[in-house]
Amino acid sequence: MVGRQKVILTPRYYLDNFRYVLDFVKRLYGSLLNEAEWAFVHRFEALSLDAQCLYVRFSNRKGLFFRVNKLQYAEITDLPAAASELLNAGFIEPLSASHTHLGEEALGVFTKPELLELLPLEPEEIRPLAKEKKETVIRYALQELDFGEIVTSLTTHETVVKMNFEAEGMMIKYLFFGNRSGSMTEFVVRDLGMVNFERYDESKLTARFRTRKEVEDKLLISLTNEEFHDLKEAETPADDIYNWFLNWNETRPELTEIAIPGYQKLVCRVGGFLERQKLPEQALSVYELSDRVPARERRVRLLFRNGSVDEALALCDEIALNPLNAEERYFANDFRDKILSVGEKKRPRKATTRFLLDAESVNIPVAYRHHVEAGVMNYYLEQEFDAAFTENYPWRGLFGLVFWDIIYDANVSAIHHPLQRAPSDFYLPDFYLKREDLLKKRLAELTTPDDWRRHTGRMFNAKYGITNVLVDWSDELLTLVQRIIDLLSVDQLRLILLEMARNVREHTRGFPDLLIWSEQGQYEFVEVKSPTDHLGPQQLHWLEFFQTIGVHGKVVRVIWEA
Questions:
Q1: Cβ neighbours of residue 231 under 8 Å, at least 6 residues apart?
Q2: Position 1 pLDDT exceeds 50
Q3: Which helix (H) or strand (E) segment is 83 a member of?
Q4: pTM for the complete prediction?
Q5: Exposed / middle / buried, residue 448 (Cβ in 10 Å: 0-12, 13-18, 19+)
Q6: Which residues pair with 557 in a beta bridge?
Q7: Which of 279, 304, 395, 506 could form a disulfide with 274 if both were Cys (CB 3.0 to 4.6 A apart)?
């Protein structure tokens, strides 16, 4: 077997990538950069090659503080001179007493034995600290020692520097990637051939942000999310987190549209945290700030629990009129029935439970209890059916192959940089609204099963290995996709793909576990449920949708036999 050819990166690959990002941001977002950010760009470009390399090395590493004598970069010809240049140009500064607020991070660059040796500690302090973790040693030092003395003790032995312009450097990367999770390692992953990205005409790439306020609003939500995470990690009392969030929410600016989805997500995270911390009233007040899933469902449950029955019923009716996904649609009716049945002997069953109880059952050897789908598959194989594990895999692949060029069409203004794995509106209602005509035109062009087979086969071969968030590449994918094409009618395929397109986030999941078929053309999509398993709302959505359009699908309940 011939392995993949080894790729050798150039010695200064990271600088080339950073310069590319810098030029890209200047071209697309130059008008949005503020004075400080432009000053950073110009000062960086004025540095020598070695100094630029060293600063980018700093910026790509975790943390703000570095020990100069620990730096080893073979491609930098004169490391001390590069560090000196950065120091003189203000890109780094020595550790000093003014860094008290960053003390934990500054001390974190040393090991515990080094701290016990270098800190101005008395012998009777060192002995008990030697048994503690490094974090405890750092906290003790910052609480009990003068930070100026700490700095003097550490820097007498070696030079520690802090990286500057971290905010400006972060903004450059944020503008390029459009989010805080984007990393320069994406370039390395691409250049090493570990991930193949779709190729774009870069002249067609569009700016993610149109105004400075859009940038600042979206970044504000990201940073607040990170602060919320840090507060939880620090085990901050839940009441304090609640007060922190309300204060932040009252003082935040009016958000632009681009930041609203992130804000709604943050609200649900905070509400969920407060609910888990047994603070229902506080959770309810936070959930009221959002109409995103699952905020409305959680509000109904909390209102009912605290006795606000009429409000809970009214919100159920509101959800039923405009459900955002299958969970909301079934929940609104189920919970309304539950509220109205209070006091009655017989409680109404949920829609998913009713559907499951009506399903057929099969006896499967208990040896399959940890591989229930395999047991059911074997059951059908013994009945002389062919069978395959499917679930979401072939449906997502079918969608990705049929609509590949539409998904990654840079003309729709949703592709903003060359390392993008999905359009920026992929999981928003805008995805369908912006592309409805293109999607329907593509489906109208595929008039026969042969058209579908040729198109998916051509895209499979042309795009094999290129990243697509819906397509998990394997040799089995095309076989499964084309098996579905053989079994369903063209009209059924069109209806299913349009239903997926209307809500890509929700409707690309919940498909049945198995596909079984016979040589006579019989087939069934089978959702497998063990005795302790439940049917999910999204699974019920697809089973009912299949019934509506004449696709054969069912639930099979497993009964274990010894």
A1: 240, 241, 244
A2: no
A3: helix 79-88
A4: 0.91
A5: exposed
A6: 361, 529
A7: 279
